[in-house]
Amino acid sequence: MAVKYDTQGCDILVAGAGFAGSLTALILTQIGYTVCLVEKKAHPRFAIGESSTPIADMILRTLADTYGLPWLYDFSRYGSWQRSHPEIVCGLKRGFSYFLHEPGKAFRTNDQHRNELLVAASVNDEQSDTNWNRADFDDFLVEKVKASGILYVDHTDIISAEKKSRWQFLARRHGESFMLEASLFLDASGTPDLLERLWDVNSSARGFLTNTYAQYSHFDGVDRWMNILGKEGISTTDYPYDPDHSALHHLLEEGWFWMLRFNNERLSMGLVMDAHRQPLLPGNRELQWGKVLSQYPSLTLMMKKAFLAPEPGKLLSTGRLQRMAEKGYGKGWVALPHTIGFVDPLHSTGIAHTLSGVEKLVKLLAQCREKSKMPYQELHTYERSVMEEMKFVDLLVSGCYKALSNFDLFSTWTMLYFTAAIAYEQKRLGGVIPGCFLEADNLALRNIVEVSYTDLRQVLTDDLHSERAINEFTSRVRKRIGPYNIAGLLDPSARNMYRHTAAEM
User: Fold this and answer.
1) Distance from C-alpha of 375 to C-alpha of 247, rounded to nearest angstrom
2) Residues 217/309, Cβ–Cβ less than 8 Å
3) pLDDT at position 15, please?
4) Distance (Å, rounded) from C-alpha 473 to C-alpha 458?
5) DSSP three-state, residue 92
6) Is the pLDDT of residue 6 over 50?
7) In angstroms, rounded to a whole number, what is the distance separating the alpha carbons of residues 248 and 219?
């Protein structure tokens, strides 16, 4: 017997009830659309993509103010989050931390922080960014969806689409089929599956400079990195913040480990491997995780008492991370950025990029409702901007992987990402919503990154990687970013310890 759902009058069908899909559904309802939200699984559920940034927080506040969602504002800072919803697990994220490890050796540095880079993104804990426990946060948003009266259907696969007077979608839930109708389909699933199944749109890694794959999970019992530094006799007195309260990057020969700590002491941890250094091969990936970890004594010590958290309870593995769809919209459908494609978790661009896409799309759909006409030209511009943003992120991230062999080069190249982030933040603080994430459409800024990428490749062709060549490269980058550099990036006196780079917010 078919399951029946009254979807007559559903204007927009949103697929995927992660934070982006749920938030988009809530905003569209505020605008005046009737919405159906379809979820393949059920909440609460495990998910990664947990590290927020100042840009993400700024967008959250704008969405809260613009679309009458005052409760959303509280999630844009650690302090207000803890006061309003301490039951929703998150982590304190003061900035970005990078530590370079050598195989077979305990972590070592010097008073110039030779193998350390700490970049603060907030002035204090109250104003800090957060690491989102996605199971809790996504579930909270779904409950908001239900309370708003939006039709929410979980455990549901969308099988096919057929255009009649409106789009009709064949769906299946618990083995039973039913139809959903909508005028517009919005794909917030975060995967390319529906694009291929419904609209025959393929995705590929073609053209990406970055080539990485990953393993990840949640862990309990992981010692704090500050404790390990203390055991190794390394002074932390001039650190701008506790690196355990940050997006913690442990840089390796093969790639890097991410570590994001929540305030219940659970740790999100992932191993991202650079396929240019360590090709993706078939076989037991858990053995690879253990093999890599065992080569780095300080990390082994940190994980000595660690064990997998109950959810997901195992290591999860990916193929190549990079992908981009051939199209991001079509007749009667459009996709959010993470559905269109993905680059890499380095620098935590995922949440902010997704939210920037939400912001753009709901604005377009608000205009569409006012004009009673689908803004296809504007959707084309949206599609192009998302793809250009991913190419820009790819360039910024690829340079980091190329520079992994030398920490001075890595630190210098990383400053180009922070320059782009600062440029975006400053424009937004000036009352202008940038046309592209990370100012990817800023031709002058993009030229700086492209020219510097060429320089980086030239330095890396020098077999000696001479100190002189590296210093000259750093000097050139410092000069190029000068017009945007309000935070003292690449100031030698900072000694890789940057106390505040984000805008006052």
Assistant:
1) 38
2) yes
3) 98
4) 10
5) strand
6) no
7) 15
CA distance 407 to 251: 9
Question: What confidence tens digit (pLDDT) does each residue in 23-43 have?
Answer: 999 999 999 999 999 999 999
- The alpha helices in 251-349, defined as continuous H runs, are 285-294, 297-302, 337-340
d(CA 111, CA 256): 23
CATH number, domain 90-132+211-317, options 3.30.9.100, 3.40.50.620, 3.40.50.1240, 3.40.50.720: 3.30.9.100
pLDDT for position 2: 41
Q: What is the CATH number of domain 12-50+133-205+323-376?
A: 3.50.50.60
Residue 86: partners with Cβ closer than 8 Å, 6 or more residues away? none
Handedness of CA 436, 504, 53, 480 (dihedral sign): positive
- What's CA 65's distance to the chain center, in Å? 23
Whether residue 14 contacts residue 57, with contact meaning beta carbons closer than 8 Å, is answered with no
Alpha helices in 283-322 (DSSP H): 285-294, 297-302
Edge-to-edge strand ranges of the sheet holding 203-204: 203-204, 323-325, 341-342
Helix, strand, or coil (residue 108): coil
* Residues 402-451: tens digit of each pLDDT: 999 899 999 999 999 999 999 999 999 999 999 999 999 999 999 999 99
State how far the Cα of 335 lies from the Cα of 320, in Å rounded to an integer.
Answer: 21
Report DSSP letters for 128-184, one per residue. -EEEE-HHHHHHHHHHHHHHHT-EEE-SEEEEEEEESSSEEEEEEETTEEEEEEESE
Token pair, residue 119, equals: 């970049």
Which tokens belong to 499? 């106390």
Percentages of the chain per state (helix, strand, coil), in multiples of 5: 40, 20, 35
Q: Which two tokens stand for residue 123?
A: 């002035």
Tokens 């946060």 sit on residue: 137
Q: Is the peptide bond before 54 cis (omega within 30 degrees of 0)?
A: no
Mapping DSSP to helix (H, G, I), strand (E, B) and coil, where does residue 268 land?
A: strand
pLDDT at position 4 over 60: no
Alpha-carbon distance of 388 to 157, in angstroms, equals: 31
pLDDT in tens, 226-253: 999 999 999 999 999 999 999 999 999 9
Handedness of CA 115, 57, 211, 381 (dihedral sign): negative
Structure tokens at 3: 């399951």
Q: How many residues does the chain have?
A: 505
Please answer whether residues 154 and 39 qualify as being in contact, where contact means their C-beta atoms are separated by less than 8 angstroms: yes
Listed by start position, the domains of the chain span 12-50+133-205+323-376, 90-132+211-317, 406-498
